[in-house]
Amino acid sequence: MSKAAITGIHGYVPDYILTNAELERMVDTNDEWITSRTGIKERHILKGEGMGSSHMGSKAVAGLLEKMNIKPEQVDLLICATTTPDYVFPCTANLICDMVGIRNIGSFDIQAACSGFLYALTIGTQFIETGKYRKVIVVGADKMSAITDYTDRTTCVLFGDGAGAVMLEPNDEGVGVLDSIIKSDGSGQNHLLQKAGGSRYPPSHETVEKRWHYVYQDGPSVFKFAVKNMADVSAEIMERNHLSGSDVAWLVPHQANKRIIDATAHRMGIESDRVMLNIHKYGNTTAATIPLCLFDYESQLKKGDNLIMAAFGGGFTWGAAYIKWAY
Ligand SMILES: CC(C)(COP(=O)(O)OP(=O)(O)OC[C@H]1O[C@@H](n2cnc3c(N)ncnc32)[C@H](O)[C@@H]1OP(=O)(O)O)[C@@H](O)C(=O)NCCC(=O)NCCS
Fold it and tell me: What phi-psi label fits residue 77: left (phi over 0), alpha (psi between -120 and 50 degrees) or beta?
């Protein structure tokens, strides 16, 4: 059976940079608190009326196709992980395909909050491994600024906008996505959610007044679950693949908080110089954090490098993947 290998990667962040200094003028916060508690210095924000996650996702996909010299008609499937779809329906994957000229193939969204990219990668991998498809694009795209309450200092400092896309293709050289684990526990639902806008609480004057269309997060509870579950699942995937810390070339962690990343790396026995980190530049871009890390570090990756991806998010959802880099 062929493995699914990541054969290309591209990322996109919008131009506007929201710095800690600007946030200091918006809410009662300061650079020292944000930097020491989260590791974030700035984040990119998508500005402009009528602009959604698809606008960033399509830039990442168009860049990927151009870079790899692949025509839209060669793509077999496109999966988009997002928590901030442009619309309730149609899905953002359909819109991205339309924007880049990909027609008449399957495309759909996956919603697993900050673990979305890992979930979508796991799903895309199955289509390659079964031999059904040969070119699957997995996109992570989120416009978190659309659901961030810029009067709430406990959440508005955390999030940013961005997108990343990878190409999956079959490989028989022993490289690619070698294992993945996805998990969820819906009893965590009330700790991290956007309460209104879905079928339980459709938009109304009341939901807007109560600010239920924004991210609500019980930060300390989420922090506790994130530290434990991201570290546990990373240890689990290493154990079952007989990997020790020294076998791992790179940890590719979801970028929610530098302290969570440090705790995961410590548990895995991985030194900080082998941990991909870009939270200082982008904040938490939800489904885009992992592909944006791969994009930023692409030039440092070597064929055969062992990568462990790990994520945790609302739901709760979490997971890990073991990848042997293919190029
Ligand atoms: C959000 C988070 C950074 C907050 O850090 P924390 O150390 O837990 O801080 P707390 O929420 O306990 O707040 C400590 C104090 O700082 C204050 N504070 C919160 N946000 C602040 C800000 N932006 N600036 C200044 N002070 C702030 C709080 O009001 C609190 O003050 P108090 O002690 O007077 O009540 C942290 O909980 C976190 O990262 N959580 C998980 C994030 C995550 O993983 N998200 C989901 C995965 S996608």
Answer: beta
Residue 214 burial (CB < 10 Å; 0-12/13-18/19+)?
Answer: buried
Task: Write the residue with the smallest CA distance to atom 19 of ligand 1.
Answer: 154
Nearest protein Cα to ligand 1, atom 36: 219
**Under 8 Å between Cβ of 61 and 96:** yes
Q: So which residues are the catalytic ones?
A: 114, 254, 284
Distance 282 CA to ligand 1 centre (A): 18
Q: How far is the CA of 320 from the centre of ligand 1 (A)?
A: 25
Structural domain total, the chain: 2
pLDDT tens, per residue, the chain with 327 residues: 999 999 999 999 999 999 999 999 999 999 999 999 999 999 999 999 999 999 999 999 999 999 999 999 999 999 999 999 999 999 999 999 999 999 999 999 999 999 999 999 999 999 999 999 999 999 999 999 999 999 999 999 999 999 999 999 999 999 999 999 999 999 999 999 999 999 999 999 999 999 999 999 999 999 999 999 999 999 999 999 999 999 999 999 999 999 999 999 998 999 999 999 999 999 999 999 999 999 999 999 999 999 999 999 999 999 999 999 999
Which residue shows structure tokens 């508690």? Answer: 37
Mutate to test the pocket of ligand 1, among 32, 229, 257 (most ligand atoms within 8 A of CB): 257
Q: Kindly give the distance from the C-alpha atom of residue 155 to the centroid of ligand 1, in angstroms, as a whole number.
A: 8
Domain around 56: 3-174
pTM: 0.97
Q: Are residues 22 and 115 both part of a single domain?
A: yes
Q: 271: which 2 tokens?
A: 């030194």
Assess whether the C-beta atom of 223 lies below 6 angstroms from ligand 1: yes
Task: For residues 170 and 133, give the distance between their C-alpha atoms in angstroms, rounded to a whole number.
Answer: 9
For residues 75 and 143, state if they share a domain.
yes
Whose CA is closest to atom 2 on ligand 1? 219
Q: Can you tell me which residue has the tokens 């992570």? A: 140
